[in-house]
Amino acid sequence: MNTDDAIILLTAGTLATACGLLGPFLVLRRQSLTSDAIGHAVLPGVVAMYLLTGSRSSLLATLGAAAFGLLCVLAIDALRRTRLLGTDAAIALTFPALFSLGVLGVSGFASGAHLDLDSTIYGEITFAPFRTMSLGAVEFPRPLLMTLLAVLLALGFVLLSWRGLQTLAFDPEFADIAGLRGRLIQRLLLMVSAIVAVIVFDSVGAILVVTFFVVPAAAAQLVANRLDTMLLVSVAIGWVSSFVGQRAAVAYDSSIAGMIGLTTVGCFLLLRLLAPRRGLLWRWLRLARRRDNTGAPARTGADSAQPKNTSASA
Amino acid sequence: MSEQHQLALQLSNVEVSYGGRPVLREVSFDIPTGVLAAIVGPNGAGKSTALKATLGLVPLTNGDVRILGTTLRANRRRVAYVPQQDLVTKDFPITAIQVVEMGRYPHRGWFRRLGADDDAAVAEAVERTGIGALLDEPLDELSGGQRQRVFLARALAQRADLLVLDEPFTAVDTRTEEALVDLLAELCADGATVLAVHHDLRTVAERFDHAVLLAGTVLAAGEVSDVLTTEALARAYGLAPRHTEPARAAR
User: Fold this and answer.
1) CA of B211, closest CA in chain A: separation in Å?
2) I need a labelling partner for A232 at 20 to 30 A (CA). Which of A185, B49, B59, B184 fits?
3) Is it true that domain B7-88+162-249 has CATH number 3.40.50.80?
4) Which residues numbered 142-201 in B keep a CB inside 8 Å of some CB on A?
């Protein structure tokens, strides 16, 4: 592994850490697709910033994106709160509107200006080692700096509002009754997620961000008995996937983000099958044992592995 | 208890609408302190909504709720809520003891650590609900009855004066139901007030002192024996009087 590989691995791993700390709350609150919505909703912000300033600087683009990312999550939350539609519908109603606005903006005003969206907001982790900025005397890869910033933000938020977050995710009505300001926490969670997503989009690409928000958390839920464990497991799955995915991408000379994304899904499937108590294999065994106990008491243990065959032949 | 003569709960002219459609109209009733009270009524009568209005979980379009003589805001810590079991996420990664400890959060807020007082309240709640053997079990491994005990323990750990329960006996076996009823009666004897939504008319009279019969608005409220009259039940369930012995009207 050379230095470039190490930088890519560190960038992916720190990104996985930031997303793995917030993702479990979004997954448990059934709001995981919020991260995808943010990815689309930021477009008009980038276009508007370009039209206003004529500059393609990524700092300005990120600010514009952040403004619309926040607008998006607050609009979703406000729509959901009307009780007229569910969270999924609120998400589906909000981001296409904003994304369409962005597309119209690009085609109407900015088409001649070569506003390259891929490089402006939807970055690519492969280029992480080459996009350096100087910090005093040293050249530091900018994407890694962004993901580290995201970790600090996510970690600070989770540590400071742990009790509120735990209660909100488990029993939002109790959070309100207990005076834990459930609504405030809910909004803060969405806003911190939006800011984290926006500051890393530019460095690593939207797909990887959405993947890291959702898949490791969903996998961790299959094995964790406590919320803190779920966060740790989801961060760990992110790091393992980053390592395996990066190595596989080098070995097969293919997309790093693609390989990492695929590895997270692989981890999910593995746990879905093998997780103690909640995994499919465990359930099948339990079911088979129960069928064995109730169906035919005289059967021996050897039969219990294949209850279908034995009952068919009987 | 200096509030011996106060009302635990007082609803005056409460109105609640969902999307412009009124669910509760002119709901007024009083619950005295120290009683075991039930809200009964047919499906869609607004029973759960009445609880949520009491707890400030739905906005009132009109009317006023007084808890222990003042507003809910001033009394949050003294009101505990046990949600309907069907509505609780069962696959949430949390252990029984963590749920019970949540009962101390209203007293400690976001940041303050749980101290010796809190540990004592949690230990007492665990003992009274008999869940000592389940503490480290994840919630999704518990049966409906065990889970209900855990949530009741959370309410007890809060050491609240008013306990509000939504359908506490659904998804619970008969033995647990009896144990829970005994426990609630004990709490009332100690001076607390219990308000529960209850759908089984057959058992209201034997388990509760006080009842509110609800069907969009209050049809009757007061001592159980005065509320569950044939005539009132007939009006609530829209049945002819001769078919409305409690046993038949239950479902």
Assistant:
1) 24
2) A185
3) no
4) none
Task: Residue A48: give its domain's CATH number.
Answer: 1.10.3470.10
Task: Kindly state the tokens that stand for A78.
Answer: 């406000």
Structural domain harbouring A158 = 3-280
CB contact under 8 A, B109 and A180: yes
Interchain contact, A178 vs B76, CB within 8 Å = yes
CA distance B141 to chain A (A): 9
Asked whether the beta carbons of A115 and A105 are under 8 A apart, the reply is no
Domain count, chain A: 1
> In a structure prediction context, what are the per-residue pLDDT tens digits for chain A, which is 314 residues long?
788 899 999 999 999 999 999 999 999 988 888 888 888 888 888 888 888 887 767 788 888 888 999 999 999 989 988 878 888 889 889 989 998 888 888 887 766 555 556 555 566 788 888 888 888 888 888 889 999 999 999 999 999 999 999 999 999 889 888 888 888 999 999 999 999 988 888 778 888 899 999 999 999 999 999 999 999 999 999 999 999 999 999 999 988 988 999 999 999 999 999 998 889 999 899 888 888 877 654 444 444 334 443 333 33
Beta carbons of A83 and B18 less than 8 Å apart? yes
**Which chain A residues contact residue B75 at CB under 8 A?**
none
What is the distance between the alpha carbons of residues B228 and B213, in angstroms, rounded to a whole number?
Answer: 8
Interface test with A, best of B61, B92, B112, B135 (most A CBs within 10 A): B92
Q: How far apart are CA A65 and CA A78, in angstroms?
A: 20
Residue among A48, A42, A39, A36 nearest A106 (CA) = A48
Element (H, E) at B203: helix B201-207
What residue segments make up the domains of chain B, in order of their start? 7-88+162-249
- Answer whether B19 sits within 8 Å of A83, measured CB to CB: yes
